[in-house]
From TrEMBL:
Signal among keywords: yes
The species this protein was found in: Pantoea coffeiphila
Name of the protein in question: YdgH/BhsA/McbA-like domain-containing protein
Coiled coil: none
Signal sequence interval, chain numbering: 1-22
Family annotation (Gene3D superfamilies): Flavin-binding protein dodecin
Cross-referenced SUPFAM superfamilies: YdgH-like
Keywords: Signal
Domain YdgH/BhsA/McbA-like residue range list: 36-88
Amino acid sequence: MKKIISATALLFTATLAFNASAAEEISRQQVQEMNLDKIGVITTTGTNAPMDAKADLSAKADKLGGRYYVIIAAEERGRTLAEAEVYK
């Protein structure tokens, strides 16, 4: 009985982890093709590397309720600064 409960709990946890996804970076062309709705703009200013900025933008897009984001501005001045539009 304990094995069945453990297996069920493991399957449930795996399903939740699979369904939890981060916002995805896409292009402006994809926004038009997918006919997405813009829900806001996000920025990141305190990251050391471009990959950190992308991860930060993705997390902020998630918090805003978006599934996708398009980077509209980026700059490196010792730190990576970025701005993105969020879509769902």
